Amino acid sequence: MSKVLVLGAGFVAGPFLRAMLERDEVRVRIGDLEPDKAAVLAGSHPRASFFGLDLRDEAALDAEIASADVVASLVPYAFHPVVARACLRRGKNMVTASYASDAMRALDGEARKAGITILNEMGLDPGIDHMEAMRLIHGVQASGGTVLGFTSYCGGLPSPEANNNPFGYKFSWSPRGVLLAGTNDARYLKDGREIHVPGAVLFDHYELLDVPGLGLFEAYPNRNSLPYLGIYGIPGARTMYRGTFRYPGWCRTMKAIAALGYLSQEDRLLAGWSARDLILALAEAPAGTEPRAAAAARLKMDRGSDVFDRMAWLGLFDDVSIGVEHASPLEALERLMLRRLRYEPGERDMILLQHVIDARTEKGREIRITSTLVDRGIPGGDSSMSRTVGLPAAAGARLLLDGRLAGRGVVIPVWPEIYEPVLADLARRGIAFREERQERTAGPAR
Q1: How many other C-beta atoms can be found within 10 angstroms of the C-beta atom of residue 198?
Q2: Catalytic residue among 125, 375, 382, 425
């Protein structure tokens, strides 16, 4: 009997747990700071158990890890190095769905010396995006071709029938992560030219893209794309761009919200404040000013703009209480957004991920390969976001249980021995890409 230790009982843990328990020889032990959450996940399954998790208790953590065969760290990303060091002490393999941070990469030498694998980025983005990218890139290279350009977009969105609010968005993930992503600088390569986009103007740099069958989406750059030239093994490509999909209107609205100061993490005394009080303070307008007018004046925009319609719908101009004594504008915005931008029972989310590769074949023809994943949540069941994060992580855990990735150090899923079985497992579960190829006339890569 194999034992998988799951740390964290958040929303991705359910799909992970159920996928692991498909194997009759696997037992799963799940821990969380809130043991009741872990208990609900374990339920009455005879091969599932739960416990209270305190990552500050090194001895208790070591004891749990010592009795496991594989450890899945589904806790917030900042705690992964804590779990990884415990796995090193006990010589246990580990999987996460989060980016391989500098702190995690620094453990590579120790992991190799210990003969263990710390498998990172086994979620959606990062995760499935890497795996499909490498499948396509390796396919081009194996046939003697050359990758000229790589462009990718990913978004977690309401499914079209659930896209019923002015924002075109609902939270299926951490609101803080979504909002803070709008403060990051971005870098990418386009037609051989390196482009740097400061976080302050990120939402100015979007384009409209048509996805057949789904319509128009905004796409804007996501962080630093340049390292992926090396990670993906295409240093000669003239275009490397990784971006985010949103429904139209998002970028102009988030630009205004950011410009007003809502993404600030500076703590303020907000006792007794309403949303109206906060926007007047951010707009530096006198008490009693009409909030829409104050925001329009501060941003030097027409008060009739649909941007302010969205802000009004969200409740940013209302006398509704923020409901907290101390908070940053970012935390206040999170609370206000969660009141309106949530999925109602039975509504589905949607994952939209698209890769576009421009390549030159061995015979000199230029082709464009477009690979698109559209996945929707299960009404009344798992969200698409939870499935596309939890299921790849579970597939990675199975590879570790089977000893197929032993002793590799700190890795991400860019090798065929990882991405081929994982993509096949996802396709079996209905999470699959649709690929199209077309010849192109010679010209610069996209």
Answers
A1: 12
A2: 125
